[in-house]
Write a structure and sequence with these properties.
alpha+beta; 3 strands
Protein backbone atom coordinates (compact mmCIF):
# COMPACT_ATOMS: atom_id res chain seq x y z
CA UNK A 1 0.00 0.00 0.00
CA UNK A 2 1.34 3.41 -0.91
CA UNK A 3 1.78 6.16 1.65
CA UNK A 4 -1.17 8.02 0.11
CA UNK A 5 -3.42 4.93 0.31
CA UNK A 6 -2.40 4.35 3.92
CA UNK A 7 -3.13 7.98 4.80
CA UNK A 8 -6.61 7.76 3.23
CA UNK A 9 -7.35 4.56 5.15
CA UNK A 10 -6.14 6.09 8.40
CA UNK A 11 -8.36 9.12 7.77
CA UNK A 12 -11.29 6.74 7.22
CA UNK A 13 -10.42 4.93 10.46
CA UNK A 14 -10.58 8.24 12.35
CA UNK A 15 -13.91 9.10 10.70
CA UNK A 16 -15.31 5.77 11.89
CA UNK A 17 -13.92 6.21 15.41
CA UNK A 18 -15.75 9.55 15.55
CA UNK A 19 -19.04 7.62 15.23
CA UNK A 20 -18.48 5.75 18.52
CA UNK A 21 -19.81 7.35 21.68
CA UNK A 22 -19.74 6.56 25.35
CA UNK A 23 -23.49 6.29 26.09
CA UNK A 24 -23.08 8.63 29.07
CA UNK A 25 -21.10 11.37 27.29
CA UNK A 26 -22.29 13.31 24.20
CA UNK A 27 -18.81 13.37 22.61
CA UNK A 28 -17.19 10.71 20.41
CA UNK A 29 -14.33 8.61 21.76
CA UNK A 30 -11.79 10.10 19.35
CA UNK A 31 -12.42 13.69 20.47
CA UNK A 32 -12.55 12.54 24.09
CA UNK A 33 -8.92 11.48 23.65
CA UNK A 34 -9.62 7.81 24.33
CA UNK A 35 -7.70 6.60 21.26
CA UNK A 36 -4.01 6.31 22.05
CA UNK A 37 -2.64 4.47 19.01
CA UNK A 38 -3.75 3.51 15.51
CA UNK A 39 -1.46 1.06 13.70
CA UNK A 40 -2.48 -0.06 10.22
CA UNK A 41 -0.23 -2.65 8.60
CA UNK A 42 0.16 -3.10 4.84
CA UNK A 43 -1.71 -6.43 5.04
CA UNK A 44 -4.78 -4.68 6.49
CA UNK A 45 -4.23 -5.72 10.11
CA UNK A 46 -5.34 -2.82 12.29
CA UNK A 47 -4.40 -2.47 15.92
CA UNK A 48 -5.91 0.25 18.09
CA UNK A 49 -5.01 1.07 21.68
CA UNK A 50 -7.76 2.84 23.53
CA UNK A 51 -8.73 3.65 27.08
CA UNK A 52 -11.85 4.65 28.95
CA UNK A 53 -12.68 7.71 31.02
CA UNK A 54 -12.74 5.41 34.07
CA UNK A 55 -11.40 1.86 34.49
CA UNK A 56 -14.73 0.68 35.94
CA UNK A 57 -16.82 2.15 33.10
CA UNK A 58 -20.07 0.16 32.96
CA UNK A 59 -20.23 0.53 29.16
CA UNK A 60 -16.68 -0.75 28.55
CA UNK A 61 -17.64 -3.98 26.78
CA UNK A 62 -20.22 -2.20 24.63
CA UNK A 63 -17.79 0.56 23.58
CA UNK A 64 -14.89 -1.79 22.77
CA UNK A 65 -17.14 -4.12 20.77
CA UNK A 66 -18.67 -1.17 18.90
CA UNK A 67 -15.17 0.01 17.97
CA UNK A 68 -14.10 -3.45 16.83
CA UNK A 69 -17.20 -4.05 14.73
CA UNK A 70 -17.08 -0.66 13.04
CA UNK A 71 -13.35 -0.91 12.29
CA UNK A 72 -13.77 -4.41 10.85
CA UNK A 73 -16.32 -2.95 8.45
CA UNK A 74 -13.82 -0.59 6.83
CA UNK A 75 -12.72 -1.56 3.34
CA UNK A 76 -9.08 -2.60 3.40
CA UNK A 77 -9.07 -3.65 7.07
CA UNK A 78 -8.57 -7.41 7.23
CA UNK A 79 -8.81 -7.61 11.02
CA UNK A 80 -9.21 -5.01 13.74
CA UNK A 81 -7.71 -5.70 17.14
CA UNK A 82 -8.73 -3.33 19.93
CA UNK A 83 -6.50 -3.22 23.00
CA UNK A 84 -7.96 -1.69 26.14
CA UNK A 85 -5.15 0.04 28.03
CA UNK A 86 -5.05 2.24 31.12
CA UNK A 87 -1.55 3.71 30.83
CA UNK A 88 -1.31 6.59 30.62
CA UNK A 89 -4.37 7.28 32.72
CA UNK A 90 -6.95 9.36 30.83
CA UNK A 91 -7.73 12.86 32.00
CA UNK A 92 -9.78 15.72 30.57
CA UNK A 93 -6.68 17.44 29.16
CA UNK A 94 -6.57 14.69 26.50
CA UNK A 95 -9.84 15.90 24.99
CA UNK A 96 -9.89 17.96 21.81
CA UNK A 97 -10.84 21.63 22.13
CA UNK A 98 -14.12 20.73 20.40
CA UNK A 99 -14.91 18.16 23.11
CA UNK A 100 -13.95 20.53 25.91
CA UNK A 101 -16.24 23.18 24.46
CA UNK A 102 -19.10 20.69 24.05
CA UNK A 103 -18.76 19.56 27.68
CA UNK A 104 -18.32 23.07 29.09
CA UNK A 105 -14.65 22.84 30.04
CA UNK A 106 -13.72 25.98 28.08
Amino acid sequence: MTAEEKLKKEERIIEVLKTVYDPEIPVDIYNLGLIYRIDLQDDGLLEVDMTLTAPNCPAADFIVEDVRLKLNGIEGVSEAKVNLVFEPEWDKDMMSDEAKLELGFM
